[in-house]
Write a structure and sequence with these properties.
Layout: H1 2-28, H2 36-47, H3 49-59, H4 64-70, H5 80-105, H6 112-129, H7 133-137, H8 140-165, H9 172-185, H10 190-211, H11 216-233, H12 236-242, H13 251-270, H14 273-288, H15 290-296, H16 301-323, H17 329-363, H18 367-384, H19 388-397, H20 400-417, E1 422-425, H21 447-455, E2 460-463
Parallel strand pairs: 1-2
């Protein structure tokens, strides 16, 4: 009877989480390309794949993996449906990557239902609380440069841990995939490439400390990651782009700003109600699985927390030092996902060490009083906070997303069917907060206007004043 109730509860939670995530996926099919989407697409189409890669690498960025993907994105082949489908599939890919990482970290201690529920909960927390959902989920250029990078990073470490856990997994296929991802990941974005290099070094040092040996595979991985990172960071295009930000700031000032910003963000993220719910889930999982308690209890809390804080600090330091500015919204999205994963791992380690102490304190709290206070506290936090789920759901139910997509396609049809090389368009009137951030300007020479015009084969496109 108890087992049946447990299965029923899991099914209810699964259905609830699926329903919470569904609006984010549905909204993908009302997204419309913006700004850089047209720039990368028209250059790839005009120059060809190889020449466009050379162009980006030498004049603008060393993100060779990201520019390669953007040069074959569906817009290059005039597929708007493919554009929408691609960003929807990324959400599924992120869920799969989180599930696989959780499975490896727990060494299959959790059932697949428990693992799926936790993965769905973590993904929902990320989608609901990401800093800017427009550039983080519904904009191809941002999705490929940052979200794809994080997904690759998760898969890279998942496979690395998978190989190290069991000799049966130590085969040529898995090793080849890890090496391939290691080669590509340096060309995603600067933050991810640096993090992968540092964490790979930490894993190698840890293995040497415990096993007193470094395998050829680990040496090869370090070499490939280092080469890939250097190819990305030392690209001529990076230095050319940095000139647009002026002189780089003092190292000490950048470090202070990064430390202040990272601590402020951590304070907000840790006290988020969804983070607290995930924290409760981690606690229940750890105390309910003795094997997990023993496994995570082997790790040193201080070392783990210090590595976690260092990774978060680096994520903020790189933008401050390279551009003199705080991380952009789409970068914060990526850092937030890294935080969620890292913080959950550290909580598992903390709970494994202090389970008995925490349980003693919980038992001292009256059940009714504790439930009322906890529920009231979460209600206040939810009321004061923002929710992307509410934002997206409102845009869908009100029809704002539908009207925006329809209006943008009307504008596209007007351009395509125009016999003139110079087009003037009315500004759009439907701008859903979950999807829209920029159209075109009144100035035909503005870079967005020029990219928009080039993509549709026009000399000039402007807004009617």
């Amino acid at each position: 009877m108890q087992e049946h109730s447990s299965v029923t509860m899991k099914r209810i939670i699964f259905v609830l989480l699926t329903a919470l995530i569904s609006p984010f996926i549905i909204n993908c099919f009302f997204a419309y390309p913006q700004t850089d989407d047209f720039m990368y697409s028209h250059i790839a189409r005009d120059m060809g794949f190889l020449k466009s890669q050379y162009h980006w690498y030498t004049t603008w960025t060393g993100r060779f993996m990201s520019t390669a993907l953007l040069s074959v994105n569906p817009l290059v082949y005039n597929s708007l449906v493919g554009y929408k489908l691609a960003i929807a599939l990324l959400i599924i890919a992120q869920l799969v990557s989180i599930y696989l990482l959780s499975d490896v970290l727990t060494k299959k201690t959790l059932s697949w239902q428990e693992n799926l529920i936790f993965s769905l909960a973590l993904l929902f927390a990320f989608l609901d609380q990401m800093d800017d959902i427009r550039s983080g989920l519904y904009w191809m250029a941002g999705v490929i440069t940052y979200q794809v990078a994080m997904t690759l990073m998760i898969l890279y470490f998942t496979l690395t841990l998978f190989i190290n856990q069991d000799h049966k997994n130590d085969n040529l296929l898995f090793k080849s995939v890890v090496i391939l991802i290691a080669l590509l990941i340096g060309g995603t974005n600067e933050i991810v490439s640096v993090l992968v290099l540092l964490i790979t070094a930490f894993i190698t040092i840890y293995n040497y400390t415990v096993k007193k040996i470094i395998s050829r595979f680990q040496i090869a991985t370090i070499i490939v990651v280092t080469i890939s990172t250097c190819l990305g960071l030392l690209a001529p295009g990076n230095f050319a782009r940095l000139h647009e930000y002026g002189e780089r700031r003092n190292l000490f000032i950048s470090a202070c700003d990064a430390l202040t910003s990272s601590l402020s963000s951590l304070e907000v993220w840790i006290t988020s109600p969804l983070t607290m719910i995930l924290m409760c889930m981690i606690f229940v999982i750890v105390i309910g699985k003795p094997h997990l308690k023993m496994m995570f209890g082997c790790f040193n809390i201080v070392s783990s927390v210090c590595i976690f804080l260092l990774m978060i600090f680096i994520c903020f330091f790189i933008p401050y030092w390279s551009t003199g500015m705080p991380p952009q919204n789409r970068v914060l999205n990526m850092i937030y996902l890294l935080f969620l994963i890292g913080w959950m791992i550290n909580l598992a380690i903390i709970f494994a060490h202090f389970e008995e102490t925490i349980l003693k304190q919980i038992k001292k709290i009256p059940i009714k009083t504790g439930c009322v206070v906890g529920a009231l506290y979460l209600f206040i936090l939810f009321s004061l906070g923002t929710s992307n789920f509410i934002l997206v759901t409102k845009d869908l139910l009100s029809g704002a997303s539908f009207r925006y997509n329809a209006e943008m396609q009307v504008r596209e049809s007007q351009i395509i069917n125009s016999d003139s090389d110079i087009c003037s368009l009315k500004n759009i009137t439907n701008t859903p907060r979950s999807l829209f951030f920029f159209f075109i300007d009144h100035d035909g020479d503005y870079w967005v206007n020029r990219c928009y015009a080039s993509y549709f084969g026009k000399k000039r496109i402007t807004l009617i004043k």
